[in-house]
Design a protein that fits this description.
It comes from Paenibacillus piri. By secondary structure, the protein is α/β, with parallel strands linked by helices. It is 32% helix and 19% strand. The protein has helices at residues 19-29, 61-74, 94-102, 135-152, 176-188, 211-220, 240-250, and strands at 3-4, 33-39, 80-88, 108-112, 115-116, 119-120, 157-158, 192-196, 224-227, 254-259, 262-267. The strands form three sheets. The protein has a seven-stranded parallel beta sheet with strand order 1-2-3-4-7-8-9. Strands 5-6 form a two-stranded antiparallel ribbon. Bound molecules: zinc ion (ZN) (2 copies).
Length: 268
């Protein structure tokens, strides 16, 4: 079984390739399931005033969903497409987020924390903000937001749960207890997380999350799915063989997949 549950496409403004190119690439690679999971449109900041290319405009969302379902039908004999959304968690905007999640028949919704207030901690154009802040404080705020995201009940799994390490900024003080609290909240919510392989091509130089966190997930029975976070068709499923091998090595025997918001475990 080869699946990829975290992908983007040209609509978001910082990825290349049409949805159909990802589907064709998935077929070429022999994926059994392909999850389409583009970014939720910006809600809490004015897209016209913010940095460009953050996410698809709100009016594109219905077109994205419609196209994804059309492709699922068109290619159903060759690949099993699952239609998802990488839903941001933004504190204070829960009602608006819930409205978007309720409005479409998603197979799954990923809960990702990118924003701390108006700062997108995953945007390479906003790295200067680290200079204004205490790294431990940033990690602490980030993991607090992850816990809140888990408690909303909006999401099927948390995306790149330790993405705060992405650019290599690390507090001197240990952050393991913050990571553990976030995983406890995931466990309490009965959610899964993903092993997001894209960290391997970033300054963090390791997948999201760390092996230590994966081992805790295994110990605590938190299910894992996998995703490449591809922003170009050529990167579809990139490093996922490594991701699957790592999970096996740790002792996982199944992967989480999602259909109409139901989790289905498949043999790894
Ligand atoms: Zn993106
Ligand atoms: Zn993300």
């Amino acid at each position: 079984m080869l699946i990829d549950y975290h992908t983007h496409h040209v609509r978001c403004g910082h990825a290349s390739g049409e949805l159909e190119e990802y589907v064709q690439k998935g077929i070429e690679l022999g994926l059994t399931q392909l999850g389409l999971s583009d970014h939720m449109p910006l809600l809490h900041v004015d897209p016209a005033a913010y940095l460009p290319g953050m996410a698809m405009p709100m009016e594109e969302l219905p077109r994205y969903v419609e196209e994804a379902f059309r492709l699922r039908q068109k290619y159903k004999e060759q690949i099993d497409i699952r239609v998802g959304l990488e839903g941001d968690y933004i504190e204070g905007w829960e009602a608006e987020i819930e409205r978007i999640i309720q409005a479409y028949p998603w197979d799954y919704v990923i809960g990702s924390v990118h924003f701390l207030g108006e700062w997108d901690i995953s945007d390479f154009r906003q790295l200067d903000e680290w200079k204004n802040r205490d790294a431990y404080e940033v990690y602490s705020q980030y993991y607090d937001a992850v816990q809140k995201a888990a408690r909303t009940g909006f999401y099927d799994y948390i995306g790149h749960i330790d993405v705060i390490k992405r650019f290599g900024f690390k507090p001197e003080r240990g952050v393991e207890h913050l990571e553990n609290e976030a995983l406890k909240a995931v466990k309490a919510a009965g959610m899964a997380i993903e092993l997001n392989a894209s960290g391997l091509r970033m300054p963090a130089n390791e997948m999201f999350p760390s092996r230590r966190m994966l081992e805790l997930c295994h110990e605590w029975g938190i299910p894992l799915t996998i995703g490449s976070d591809a922003h170009q068709p050529d990167r579809l499923a990139q490093y996922l063989d490594q991701a699957a091998a790592l999970l096996k090595e740790i002792g996982f025997t199944e992967l989480a997949t999602f259909n109409q918001r139901k989790r289905i475990m498949l043999a790894l």
